[in-house]
Automatic annotation (TrEMBL):
Source species of the chain: Cryptosporangium japonicum
Record-linked Pfam families: Polyketide_cyc2
Source organism, top-level taxon: Bacteria
Signal peptide (residue range): none
Name used for this protein in its record: SRPBCC family protein
Annotated PANTHER family: BLL4707 PROTEIN, SRPBCC FAMILY PROTEIN
InterPro entries: Polyketide_cyclase/dehydratase, START-like_dom_sf
Coiled coil ranges: none
SUPFAM superfamilies linked: Bet v1-like (SSF55961)
């Protein structure tokens, strides 16, 4: 199994970061440069395990299912639904927000997956998905 990982520190406390990041349907709000629209299917709540978000990323539609969400641990995990937008299988991504003692936050974004070209995708997800997403989140919080 391959693993991709990206981490960064935010200048905002963990509660403030988590209040925005925990919204599984919030991508279009804080990453609007990449995600033009997002909705939760079948009338489920955005924080309900099993909820499927469908969103536009560039020219394509991506569907992801929320697998776990913990407000106590400030983390959630999700998987692709249907045909993945990338040639990977068994993809599970996790976002985690951890408080830092001086009032900042440590954010980790990771994924595990299978792929015939694991080296390519292990480098791709942090550089092309995780880092841009978290930079957009930081910019949104700085407003």
């Amino acid at each position: 199994m391959a693993r991709s990982y990206y981490s960064t520190v935010f200048e905002h406390d963990a509660a403030a970061v988590w209040a925005v990041a925990r919204d599984f349907n919030g991508l279009a709000t804080w990453w609007s440069e990449a995600c033009s629209e997002s909705h939760i299917e079948d009338g489920k709540a955005a924080d309900q395990v099993g909820a499927v978000r469908s969103f536009q990323l560039g020219e394509g539609t991506i569907r992801e299912r929320l697998l776990a969400l913990s407000d106590l641990e400030r983390t959630y995990s999700y998987e692709f639904v249907g045909t993945p937008p990338f040639p990977v299988t068994d993809y599970i991504a996790t976002l985690r927000v951890t408080p830092v003692s001086d009032g900042r936050s440590f954010l980790e974004y990771s994924a595990v997956f299978e792929s015939d070209d694991a080296a390519r995708w292990t480098a791709f997800f942090p550089a092309e998905v995780f880092e841009p997403a978290l930079k957009a989140l930081a910019s949104y919080l700085a407003r």
